[in-house]
Amino acid sequence: MADVKKYGVIGTGMMGREHIRNLALVPGAQLVAISDPHEPSLQAALDTSAKAAMGPVKAYTDYNAMLDQHSLDAIIIATPNHTHFDIAAELLDEDIALLVEKPLCTTVTEASQLVERVKTRNALFWTGLEYRYMPPVASFIDRIHEGEIGRLQMLSIREHRFPFLRKIGNWNRFSRNTGGTMVEKCCHFFDLMRLIVQSEPVRIYASGAMDVNHLDEQYDGDRPDIIDNAYAVVDFRNGVRANLDLCMFANGSEQQEEICAIGDTAKLEVAIPSGLVSYAPRVSMGQAKQVVRHHVETDPSALAAGYHHGATYYQLLAFQAALVNGAAPVVSALDGLRSVAMGAAAHQSIETGQAVDLDLS
User: Is 309 within the bounds of a domain?
Assistant: First the structure.
């Protein structure tokens, strides 16, 4: 029983409920309490936990009341982006492990403040950048780091997908609440770039706009301002170049995410949701091409428990292991800050039409 850890979840919208379903699959993770001021979301989360046969779970509209009533080992913060800073800053005073959903914060200033405060505490602090935990992506990254493509030269990430979903109060229609699309959505991809390249960005140039989605929407007289497509080019300190191709009005596209890494000896690609990894070594002119394809399996239960190709489950396994073993986070507050900083720089580049220099050392 020493390895059983008691969890609370703050924020029971779509992502909060995904965490609840996945906690049910993690050995030693016991969900005991949830909190959300929106009672329909809270009830939906209770229904989710009941379907997952998680045992008794108490519900609260105020997370401070939840803290008063329960001795928790860990809390997952899955509230709207613009609330992350205030909630996390308050909970940093508690001796409780925290997993804060991406983006860590909506601004670089707030994320920097959290990073400084995390340095002074002992409890585990983890940023929920779970895309690196999709099994096909994790396998792809391992193969690059093992040198299978030689020295990495170029990295390309493409996501063509559907528009942002509706959220409670339509909070995600406005950059002031999300940090902007390049922070809200693309922090995942900037995190993957840093992880794969194993270096820090020094320059970002981006071009993007709000061209198709949400143009006819209005909320209390306020029009949405979130961009729906962009290209971003990132130069890294070690000389690697990376690019991001984002389109959020490709509703009919078959593929959501594709990542391609090209080294000096081979090319490696991974596709989600197919889970297919393709390897193609360089050949001399006139030689036959040799493309080797491999399908990376993902636990069917993990696939069924969320919308991120099993990533939430595998991230929670790693989080639980770190919690039990007293280990350092795999995805730190600093990782969260740097992914936000890259997204903010991309927005600055879009607004000014100029490349933005970065120093994240």
Answer: no
